[in-house]
TrEMBL record:
Span of domain Alcohol dehydrogenase-like C-terminal: 180-306
Domain Alcohol dehydrogenase-like N-terminal: start-end pairs: 25-137
One function term, GO molecular function aspect: oxidoreductase activity
This protein's name: Alcohol dehydrogenase
Family: Belongs to the zinc-containing alcohol dehydrogenase family.
InterPro entries in the cross-refs: ADH-like_C, ADH-like_N, ADH_Zn_CS, GroES-like_sf, NAD(P)-bd_dom_sf
Entry keyword set: Metal-binding, Oxidoreductase, Zinc
Named cofactor requirement(s): Zn(2+)
Source species of the chain: Caldiarchaeum subterraneum
PANTHER family, A to Z: DEHYDROGENASE, ZINC-CONTAINING, PUTATIVE (AFU_ORTHOLOGUE AFUA_2G02810)-RELATED (PTHR42813:SF2), ZINC-TYPE ALCOHOL DEHYDROGENASE-LIKE (PTHR42813)
Pfam families attached to this UniProt entry: ADH_N (PF08240), ADH_zinc_N (PF00107)
Length: 346
């Protein structure tokens, strides 16, 4: 089969690879029909997370079941499915309490040995899916791949940012970072009753995408973001702030500054490093700091209902559609911020 394989920082090659096989009786094999490049993939692409040379990349995908192990009960050959990017066993204490992203056997596709076993990922013609009855989500036949594929990862991440953070109807919401996760967080905030969504970025194209979704925007390269937010909120600040940038301390500090007293900062940006935060300020102002990871297993079916009803259309953030052979080019576009969301059609 053909697959996009990682060999080092910036080095992805589309080449032949051995087809996966059923290893456990709870496995399934899924033939992807659509996958997407996620911001988290960039950490592997750039070498910030070390993968295994030759490992197949990608973790956000959907497809058709090709084969199931003898213990798989909920799915069969030919089923159209969305694959949760997070692999959970469905049986441990955390899974029994629907806390799947903290499963004792947690793993993620295409990200190397970050959780132990390196699971080959989505940019391939066939993928082995462990714990299939837990990890697979049935996809409706009457909704396109473009609208469903982000249910695998980025849409539940945006949704969890809002729900786990405790956003309330009527809140003024500020989103720091207008990448796919930030924009989907804003869309979910609107869906759940935010009175206003203000999107912050320094990249013109991403600010335009936010405007096209109906958000108010602030260009952080030319404005003092905290001053601008206060001017929009009678000097108070935002009720709820989503930090969707990650990587460094600065966007987190900005999110804390933008939140009003007793406001909430919901962090979904991917943070690799340890750093200090203004704990004294947080205590004095009673601001809440919440960290969230998207949970497709818990929220996938609910999000599919929102999509089917027309209340949510995540395909609006897709800017490029490429083939499997064009995956390296897709990473180049995404790294240079020339693409917002890259869909790979297989």
């Amino acid at each position: 089969m053909r697959a996009a394989r990682w060999y080092g920082a910036g080095d992805i090659r589309v080449e032949d690879a051995a087809e996966p096989e059923i290893k456990s009786e709870t496995d399934a094999l899924v033939r992807p029909t659509a996958a997407a490049i996620c911001g988290t993939d960039l950490h592997v692409f750039k070498g910030e997370l070390t993968s295994v040379p030759g490992a197949i990349m990608g973790h956000e995908f959907m497809g058709v079941v090709e084969k199931v192990g003898p213990a798989v009960r909920k799915f069969r050959e030919g089923d159209r499915v969305i694959v949760s990017c997070w692999v959970a066993d469905g049986e441990c204490w955390y899974c029994r309490h629907q806390l799947y992203t903290q499963c004792f056997n947690i793993n993620i596709f295409g990200m190397g040995p970050v959780y132990g076993e390196s699971l080959d990922g989505a940019f391939a013609e066939l993928v082995r899916v462990p714990y299939a009855d837990t990890v697979l989500i049935k996809a409706p036949e009457d909704v396109s791949d473009e609208k469903l594929v982000t249910v695998s990862d980025s849409l539940p991440t945006g949704f969890e940012a809002v729900v786990n953070g405790g956003m309330r109807e009527g809140d003024v919401v500020v989103v720091i970072g207008c990448g796919p996760i930030g924009l989907l967080s804003g869309m979910c905030a609107e869906l759940l009753g935010a009175s206003q969504v203000i999107a912050v970025d320094v990249v013109r194209e991403r600010l335009e995408a936010a405007k096209n979704l109906g958000f108010k925007t602030i260009d952080g390269s030319v404005s003092d973001v905290a001053d601008e937010v206060r001017s929009m909120t009678d000097g108070v600040g935002a009720d709820f702030v989503v930090e969707a940038v990650g990587r460094t301390r600065e966007p987190l500090l900005k999110a804390i500054e933008v939140a009003r007293r007793k406001g909430t900062v919901s962090v979904v940006g991917f943070h690799l490093h340890e750093y200090t935060i203004p704990s004294g300020q947080l205590w004095l102002t009673e601001k809440k700091l919440v960290f969230s990871i998207g949970d497709p297993i818990k929220n996938g079916e609910k999000l599919i209902r929102f999509i089917r009803s027309g209340r949510l259309d995540p395909s609006r953030i897709i800017t490029h559609k490429l083939s499997l052979d064009e995956v390296p080019h897709g990473f180049e576009l995404f790294t240079k911020k020339q693409a917002l969301k890259v869909l790979v059609k297989l």
